[in-house]
Amino acid sequence: MPRDIGEIGLSVKRLQVRHHRTANDRLAPLGLSIVQWDALRHLHERPDASLHDLAQLTFQTDQSFGSLAARMIDRGLIERVPGPGRAVRHRLTGKGEELRKQAGQIVHGVLAESFSALSEQELQTFGDLLARILTVSPVSRPAGSSRQG
After folding, report:
1. How do residues 49-103 score in pLDDT, each as one tens digit?
2. Torsions phi, psi of 146, nearest 5?
3. How far, in whole angstroms, is CA 8 from its chain's centroid?
4. Mind listing the domains of the chain with CATH numbers?
5. In 48-149, alpha helices (H)
C-alpha cells in the first residue's frame, strides 16, 4: 500500500492508465477508443458546446479535438451544425448515439471491475476524497501548457 505522496500520485496515474488501456481494448470491436467515446459522451451531455469547450472537457487542445471531430464526421458519428454567428457546433448522429450507449456500458463495466475490491462505503469515501482534492488543491500548469491530464 502506498505510503508516501509520490507513490500515491503514481498509483493514481497507474490506475488511470489501466482504465484507459483496458477500455481501449474493450472498445476496439466497436471501432472506438476511450477518447472517441469521451467525445461522444460530452457531445451527448452538451450538444451546443463549442469546439473549444469540448476540447477542454476531453483534455485535448483545440487543434487535436478539431482533428478528432473531423475523423468522427467522416465516420458518420457526429455532424456539424450552424451555431450563433459564424460558430460551428457538433451534434451526435443516430449512429454516434448508438455507439455512445454501447461504449458507455463497456466503460462502466471496466470501472466496475476495477473498483470491485472496494465496498460501497469505501468507494463513496474514495470518491469524496478525490472530489475534495480536486476542488481544494488545484495544481497549476506551467506557463504555455494547454494540455491537461
Report:
1. 888 889 999 999 999 999 999 999 999 999 988 777 877 788 999 999 999 999 9
2. -115, 0
3. 22
4. 13-136 (1.10.10.10)
5. 51-57, 62-74, 94-114, 120-136
